[in-house]
Write a structure and sequence with these properties.
By secondary structure, the protein is mainly beta. The protein has five domains: 54 residues, no CATH class; 55 residues, no CATH class; 30 residues, no CATH class; 70 residues; 139 residues, no CATH class. Helices cover 4% and strands 35% of the residues. The chain is built from two helices and 26 strands. It has a six-stranded mixed beta sheet with strand order 11-12-13-14-15-16, with no helix packed on it. A four-stranded mixed beta sheet has the order 3-4-5-6. β3, α2 and β4 form a beta-alpha-beta unit. The longest helix is centred in the N-terminal third of the chain and has 11 residues. The protein is rod-shaped and about 190 Å long.
Length: 481
């Protein structure tokens, strides 16, 4: 059989005179151009050696690049087949021509025809997203399933930024081999934070309800006494032994009660409760048993930086312990001062209204002093001499020792209830004199917003002399609470 090659335009023109539809190898075309295989009169293909198909113009990307024809909207739908991409470029209308295969012209650029050898999709080959895309799901769902039997990084975004291990059902952030249900790894270090939990609704009803929380740790095992834990590992792997733990304890599923335990590992004994907060509000330090008080400490205790109290302003209360270790306030509190006893009037004039400030001491002023001089009256009796004996007897009949009444005024916070304060007075000798004095408390009162104490000082070692020096008055105020 001879082949006759005619320009297709001639064939179509000739056929156009006969029919509005053109058929090749078919007597009854169903479309404008209907190309069929060669068949016999019964419609069967008898020649199985015939080459079937329609071929679009075949050219390389280099040849398409060299083509200077101007393609526009009139060429929409034009079809070509790229046989090679080793030459030419992907500029202009050829931006998508990066693989071999069929392309059609959409009026602006050449587009791949999906399904051909040159078509690229996520199911058959890697590709490049040429522009922004949005997936509108409406009321539909988008799911990814996996039947992985090994490996870890079965779905990922930007490498380790987000990785899913569908075999072990784990998610990695910062790692492609997560070792826990959620494994975060900060490989940057420095000031880069690991995890942030933020929000404007992160505290429901002033934090007194279970709504709007930043992070939740809970246990699906309803019979466990632990609600979960946050573990800190000293080694460099997540599977290392826990070195310290914050653990939810004292769990009550029905009432939603719970407490906390802070545990550390310091020796071969393993994790030990160092601080326990029970659901009752009792706090235990150094005890693994349930704390029985609001603060239950098992071990020596040191408190640094205690404030020197002074009613509590003037009389800090003492803390004492019972035999079982329970702490409480003592029924007594005390405060002490060291005041000055001025010299007797014979040597330093008496004064009032704090006119002499030389004897102020330890926050107390000497407001006034009033002295009484020592005095002794002798009485002599007798009728004359008898031999060598004196006929007279001299007797001291009126003895008045030197004494002084002093009013002291405290310049600090006035004592709250002077009637419950019991001053204990002793004297001290800071001079070289051998003097001895006896103090007596007279009264304690509040005058003009100041606490005043009146005392009497008597010299007892020598009834005949007054005193020239200043001495000490040691004062201990005892308050019965």
């Amino acid at each position: 059989m001879k082949k006759i090659i005619l320009p297709i335009a001639s064939v179509l023109l000739f056929s156009g005179f006969l029919s509005a539809q053109v058929g090749i190898n078919t007597p009854a075309p169903k479309t404008t151009l209907d190309v069929g295989a060669k068949r016999d009169a019964s419609g069967n293909i008898t020649d199985n050696t015939q080459l079937l198909g329609i071929q679009a113009p075949r050219l390389t990307r280099g040849e398409l690049t060299a083509n200077t024809a101007s393609y526009g909207t009139d060429q929409k739908g034009a079809l070509i087949y790229i046989t090679d991409i080793s030459t030419g470029n992907t500029t202009g209308s050829r931006i998508n021509v990066d693989t071999t295969g069929y392309y059609y012209f959409d009026g602006i650029v050449w587009q791949k025809i999906s399904g051909g050898p040159g078509a690229v999709n996520i199911y058959t080959a890697d590709g490049i997203l040429r522009s922004n895309r949005i997936v509108t799901m409406a009321d539909k769902t988008l799911s990814f399933t996996s039947a992985a039997t090994a490996g870890s990084n079965h779905f990922s975004i930007d490498g380790a930024t987000f990785s899913v291990d569908t075999f072990a059902n784990r998610i990695g952030i910062g790692t492609t081999s997560p070792s826990a249900i959620l494994n975060t790894l900060n490989a940057v270090g420095g000031s880069t934070g690991d995890v942030f939990a933020t929000g404007i609704n992160n505290c429901g009803a002033d934090c007194n309800q279970n709504a709007a929380r930043n992070m939740v740790v809970y246990n699906t095992n309803g019979t466990s006494s632990s609600a979960g834990s946050i573990d800190f590992v000293s080694s460099t792997t997540s599977t290392g032994t826990s070195a310290s733990v914050i653990k939810g304890i004292d769990r009550n599923v029905g009432s939603n009660f719970g407490g906390l335990a802070f545990q550390t590992r310091g020796d071969a004994s393993g994790l030990i409760d160092r601080l326990v907060i029970k659901s009752t509000g009792n706090v235990g330090v150094g005890t693994t048993d349930a704390p029985t008080e609001k603060l239950d400490i098992n071990g020596n205790t040191r408190i640094r930086g205690l404030v020197n109290g002074s009613d509590a302003a003037n009389f800090p209360r003492s803390v004492v312990a019972k035999a079982d270790g329970t702490l409480g306030y003592s029924s007594l509190s005390m405060s002490s001062f060291q005041l000055i006893i001025p010299p007797h009037n014979q040597y330093t004039s008496d004064f009032n209204n704090h006119s002499n400030t030389a004897y102020d001491s330890d926050g107390w002023w000497v407001i006034s002093k009033s002295s009484v001089a020592a005095n002794v009256t002798f009485t002599t009796t007798g009728s004359g001499f008898s031999g060598s004996s004196s006929p007279y007897t001299t007797t001291a009949t009126n003895i008045t020792p030197a004494r002084m009444t002093i009013i002291y005024e405290y310049q600090g916070t006035p004592f709250a209830d002077p009637g419950k304060i019991y001053p204990q007075l002793t004297t001290g000798n800071n001079q070289t004199y051998p003097d001895v004095y006896n103090p007596s408390f007279i009264k304690l009162e509040t005058i003009g917003g100041k606490t005043r104490m009146t005392v009497s000082i008597v010299r007892s070692d020598n009834m005949l002399n007054n005193w020239a020096g200043s001495f000490l008055l040691n004062t201990l105020f005892v308050v019965k609470n």
